[in-house]
Structure formats: structure tokens, C-alpha cells
Amino acid sequence: CGDVGILAIEIYFPNQYVEQSELEEHDGVTKGKYTIGLGQQKMGFCNDREDIHSLCLTVVQRLLEKNKIGYGEIGRLEVGTETIIDKSKSVKTVLMQLFKPSGNTDIEGVDTTNACYGGTAALFNAVNWIQSQFWDGRYALVVAGDVAVYPPGPARPTGGAGAIAMLIGPNAPITFNRVRATHMEHVYDFYKPDLSSEFPTVDGKISIECYLSALDCCYERYCKKENRPDVSFDDFDYFCFHSPYCKLVQKSFARLCVNDYFLYSDKEQSDSKYPDLVPFKNLNLKETYFNRELEQAAVKCSKTSFEAKTLPSLMIASMVGNMYTPSLYGGLVSLLVNKNAESLLGKRIGMFSYGSGLASSMFSLQVSKDAGRVESLLASLGDIPSRLEARTALPAAEFTTILKAKEDSYNKAPYQPTASLDTLTSGTYYLIEVDPQYRRTYGRR
Ligand code: ACO
């Protein structure tokens, strides 16, 4: 079947947030560290009424309802998440309760986990299924969701929460280009070995180096696989990145420019294209992850391209935070929300997915030239800016109290949530209770 890709997409983020500027003051760090240094404006978070199940139930229900897709029309459902509240039972099986009234239980796929990469693995699986001999003609549904929380300290402002659902099928407004490049490696940069805690064990500096080196590997491989000399970031009209925090994305975009400069076969041409990088020409690329002078020169010479190609993709990342598995796809949604159909038709979108540990891939999406298809996709995303605006701001002290209470009650059974249902928007799924056997029940607001 032709033009397999993303037919529809829906995002859910919690209805409350904390201002990063207030958090700076509350945490006693210097003014500007989170807002300018990390590039984050607001951080979304869940109270005890929401967990990974409820986030995913909400987003799947909304996607299907909004796009008038019947539950019987889904033949595969994949979930990418690193928010593990059960070591055996998948989030996918929890989502099956939505399908029960339709009688559709013939749905392949379970959960995929590797830090922030699970959503991408799920997406690849879904596309592969539709292009395989096993496809039965129905849609695939990809869900990526996480609750990203860190302990008090330098990583805390890089949290977030949310879920994305993508409907995959033929004749799509956004399809997949042929080339994919992957880099996977065994590292301990960010991992969750303590099963009694929701928090990761993280070495911030190593995680940044791992992220940037994975980007280098994927980009070089991607360019080689394109089998054309001198592929450069100019070949992409837009570029979305997994966003742990927005400043790292700007540095990553600049890193593509550094790669172009070092990989370009015509050295004279690359010197004249990137004069600011000439002083660094003799450096070993692998030793430059924390070279501030090179970084600043690259940020400077890629600034205009960054603002045109990537900045529009950072709206949700800066207003909600790192949602982990949905982060990259929140970038795609932001880009679609901030561009009109005319500026998207026929365009190529670079995508870089990174999950610590580590698994990373680069691929590219192709926006259809069919205005009707693209316009209907964009129309379904039109409510996102107002939903972001309508959220409730909670003081930093209350955010901290809520996170502490969640930490203290983590994995407790029985458990009765206490947050008011008034904190939730209409149609949101919420946790009713965890019974003594750890079974969770949900209601819908
Ligand atoms: N005004 C403006 N900028 C400031 C200020 C200020 N007052 N104070 C600090 N900054 C800048 C710093 O110069 C630094 O900028 P730079 O990165 O360009 O050097 C930036 O703000 C951050 O400050 P640091 O001191 O480097 O921050 P810290 O080390 O305390 O924490 C970190 C940052 C490591 C990212 C931490 O938040 C973390 O561990 N996060 C989780 C891990 C993570 O997200 N890793 C990324 C990939 S892995 C993944 O996706 C989970």
C-alpha cells in the first residue's frame, strides 16, 4: 500500500504547570539558570490523579474520538514508555479496556522500553507491520507517554509529563522517507535501576555527551546512506530533536552545522560556507563536545537556520518540559501547529530520536503535496495553543509538595488519590484507586 505514514496525531499534557522562573527562585539558583541556561519556560506535572495509564487512556480516547475512528478499525497498538508501574503487565493491555465495548481484541503489539526511545521503536514497528505480509488492512496506533520526574537538584527543572498518540496507515499527509540511521551502545548515562523509586540515576554531563555523540553518529550514517555527496542540513526544511531541554536542541542543531563543516568533501567550499568554524578545522570532532568556543561559533553561524527550521518545533518542549518518549513527537506537533499548510507542503522534516542507555535514530518525514490531507491534519491540532494557555499555574512550593507526596506514596497499595477532580479538564481519565492487590481503576472526567 502507498504513502504509509502519520494520518492523525493527538497530544495530552497535564492541566497544571510550574513557572521555571518561580522554580529558580524557589530552588535558590541564580536567576536565568532554568529559563535562559536551559531554555525552559514552564514545566507540566501530574498530581496523584494521573499516572502513565491515565495519560495514555486520555490520549487514545481523544485521538479516536476527534478523528471519528472506530475501535474496531485498529489492528495494532504499540506503546513506548519508560514509566514502569508494573514489571509484567503492559500499558497496552490497560488500554484494551477502551476497546472492550467494540469487541475488538484482535490487536497486535505490546510495550517497548528504552528511556526516551520507546516511542520511536513503537513507531518503526507500526510502520513495518503495515508494510509487511502480516498487515490486515486496519490502522496501527502508536502511543508514547511518560511522567518525567527528577529528585530535587539540578535535573529537576528538566522534567515534564504527557502522552502522544499517532494513527498510522496508508494515504497519509506525512510519510516516511526511505533512509534511517541508528546508533546503539551500552552506556550508563541515565537509567532507572532503583525499582522502588520513580527517579532515574543520571549523570547529566555524560548524558549530554552521549546525546551529542549519538547525534554525530546518526547524522554521519544518515548522510552516507543517502548515498549523495555532501548532504547537509540544508537538505532538511525542518528538523525536530528529542528535547531534554530546549538549549540542548539549539546546541544539537549547531552540531549538525559542525558535522557539515567537518564532513564536507570540498574543504575550500566548506571554509567559505562556514568561515566562523575555520579556526577549529584541526580539532578531532570526538573531542569537541564541551568545547565552548566551537559551540558558540557553531550556534552563531547556524542561528538563522535554527530559527527557521527548528525553533517552531520547541513550543511544547519549552511549555511542558521533557515528556521523555513523546518529546520528539511533541516537537513534530509544535512544528505543525506553528506552520500553515502552504509552508509545509512537500517539505522534508529531519527527526532525531535519543533514549539514554543508549538507543538513537535519525530518519526523515515527508509532508504530502496534497493540500487537503495536510490541512485536515493541521485542523485537528488547532486547539493546542489554547489548551497550553488554559492550564493552571501552581506555585513552586505547591509543585514541590505535590511531588514529595507522590514520592512518599510511590508503589503504595492500597492507595486513595486525594487531588480534586476539578484539576482535570473534561474527558480526562483519572485514577480512582489502587486496591490492596495493586489493581488500578480509572474514571473519566
Ligand atoms: N543565567 C543564564 N544561564 C545560566 C545561568 C544564569 N543565571 N546559570 C547557569 N546558566 C547556564 C549554564 O552556563 C549552562 O549553560 P551551558 O550548557 O551552555 O554551559 C546551563 O545554564 C545549565 O547550567 P549547568 O550548571 O550546566 O547545569 P547543571 O549541571 O546544574 O544541570 C543538566 C544541567 C546536567 C542538564 C541537568 O539539568 C540534568 O542532569 N538533567 C537531566 C539529564 C538530561 O536531560 N540529559 C540530556 C540528555 S538525556 C535525556 O534526555 C534525559
From TrEMBL:
<comment type="pathway">
    <text>Metabolic intermediate biosynthesis; (R)-mevalonate biosynthesis; (R)-mevalonate from acetyl-CoA: step 2/3.</text>
</comment>
<keyword id="KW-0443">Lipid metabolism</keyword>
<keyword id="KW-0752">Steroid biosynthesis</keyword>
<keyword id="KW-0756">Sterol biosynthesis</keyword>
<keyword id="KW-0444">Lipid biosynthesis</keyword>
<keyword id="KW-0808">Transferase</keyword>
<dbReference type="InterPro" id="IPR000590">
    <property type="entry name" value="HMG_CoA_synt_AS"/>
</dbReference>
<dbReference type="Pfam" id="PF08540">
    <property type="entry name" value="HMG_CoA_synt_C"/>
</dbReference>
<dbReference type="InterPro" id="IPR016039">
    <property type="entry name" value="Thiolase-like"/>
</dbReference>
<dbReference type="Pfam" id="PF01154">
    <property type="entry name" value="HMG_CoA_synt_N"/>
</dbReference>
<keyword id="KW-0753">Steroid metabolism</keyword>
<dbReference type="InterPro" id="IPR013746">
    <property type="entry name" value="HMG_CoA_synt_C_dom"/>
</dbReference>
<dbReference type="InterPro" id="IPR010122">
    <property type="entry name" value="HMG_CoA_synthase_euk"/>
</dbReference>
<keyword id="KW-1207">Sterol metabolism</keyword>
<comment type="function">
    <text>Catalyzes the condensation of acetyl-CoA with acetoacetyl-CoA to form HMG-CoA.</text>
</comment>
<dbReference type="InterPro" id="IPR013528">
    <property type="entry name" value="HMG_CoA_synth_N"/>
</dbReference>
<feature type="domain" description="Hydroxymethylglutaryl-coenzyme A synthase N-terminal">
    <location>
        <begin position="3"/>
        <end position="173"/>
    </location>
</feature>
<protein>
    <recommendedName>
        <fullName>Hydroxymethylglutaryl-CoA synthase</fullName>
        <ecNumber>2.3.3.10</ecNumber>
    </recommendedName>
</protein>
<feature type="domain" description="Hydroxymethylglutaryl-coenzyme A synthase C-terminal">
    <location>
        <begin position="175"/>
        <end position="445"/>
    </location>
</feature>
<comment type="similarity">
    <text>Belongs to the thiolase-like superfamily. HMG-CoA synthase family.</text>
</comment>
